[in-house]
Input
Amino acid sequence: MNKMFCFQCEQTAMSTGCTGNAGVCGKKSDTANLQDKLTGALIGLACAVKKSSATATTDKLMLSGLFTTITNVNFNNETINELTEEITKEKVKLSNTCLDYDMQNLWNDQEDIRSLKSLILFGLRGVAAYAYHAMVLGYKDEQVNNFFYEGMSAISDSNATVESLLPLVLRTGEINLTCMALLDRANTDSFGIPVPTTVPLTVEKGPFIVITGHDLYDLKLLLEQTANKGINIYTHGEMLPAHAYPELKKYPHLKGNFGTAWQNQQKEFDNLPAPILFTTNCLMPVRPSYADRVFTTEVVSYPEIVHIGENKDFTPVIDKALALGGYTEDTEFTGINGGNTVTTGFGHGTILGVADKVVSAVKTGAIKHFFLVGGCDGAKTGRNYYTDFVKQTPPDSIILTLACGKYRFNDLDLGTIGGLPRIMDMGQCNDAYGAIKVAVALSEAFNCTVNELPLSFILSWYEQKAVCILLTLLHLGVKNIYLGPTLPAFLSPNILKFLVENYNISPISTPEKDLKKILG
Ligand code: SF4
Ligand code: SF4
Output
């Protein structure tokens, strides 16, 4: 019998599922089983909500529970157990007739049903992360919150059919669009409209803190608590786009970005003379060489690592930064292609602000094609496809990018077209919302559908937030997506056939072949 079963991310063992003592991500079998138990409790909670209405506490538990089970978020049995107990208490408070669901029923279901229910479950985990970030900033949407209960109930529906589940899969994508719009509003209302910003990769001498993940509110609190203390702040991973928000960039000690892609953290944090604060996912098993300087907050948790609780008192992180002292000299780092700065801040506000320039560049032929090269990064060697693809795009094309995958090429200088840089970073993975807004605006300007635009989606996926974004694109009817580096293990042959026949999704091949296919 399997010790665990998990196939929710791209790096799953043998591209089929992690089943042994630990997953490829380092999640141990006991933790995986506790996460299944937690998910089963959430499905029980969804049942209870049908009998008695959800409260703000119920909603928060649903979001926290789903977010906790995302890849690379929580490796801590203790906090997973505590959360499961809280969920069970809430369930009993709402109704004492709902049983928790045994996830083995899902993992052993008929393969097409398992595939569709997995798409819903993993998609909901992604949506929950975005809804959680919006909630922290005081933004919520009833329609989004209500759908978590509907979607989770469908997982335990033993009468569900392919026909009943398919619309729910697409509805998950639709709800994610609403949720990404909510988070976009939360971020821009709170921190302003992002502006194009060049971010140095050099770390200045003296004490500093590295902050990673998506949570801009945590960054703001950290910036406030470190003001005038002689400590500089460096972003990492998905926190890079924070530099573009006026209400964050106004802090003079927000200095630059440290490190390349998230999967290089074990090497890059090795003996770092600074603490690292994890605000969301992409936490890899912590190595002893830097374990004393890792801090977590919100739903991120790792055994024996100091956790900053709801009071958001970052004093332990600040004290650690002062004790470690940082580098004694300014220390230069580069991106993976040797560049020593990166740019960000080309959100939909900026790009649509120069829409007339973009439209006229297309009309004059200065811009012939747009590529959205975005999504996740990861450890697989095949992911250099994305660097090579970008390098080989013709000089009359624009690369829009977002999310973690951009670290493969965001330090390249590919020049400009009509004053616009050829590579434009639109932000975090949730800023896929901005890319969709730009695509829709272009289609309106050219009086055609998004599928008829000279625009190609070259996506990389890794974890569950990428799943909900993919479902959003399918909900919008976007076709001809190139997806890599490998296809999800949870797509059964029949469901994959459906996606290929209806949406013409293709696995990536080589940059040369794919560019030829796209550009003719
Ligand atoms: S999250 Fe990914 S790597 Fe980790 S156990 Fe699950 S499938 Fe395996
Ligand atoms: S881009 Fe992918 S790997 Fe990075 S945070 Fe988003 S979903 Fe996770």
Notes: The chain has three domains: 13-190, 200-324, 345-519. The domain at 345-519 is CATH 3.40.50.2030 (Rossmann fold). The pocket of iron/sulfur cluster (ligand 1) is lined by residues 6-9, 11-12, 18, 23-25, 27, 32, 71 (CB under 6 Å). The chain is about 45% helix and 10% strand.
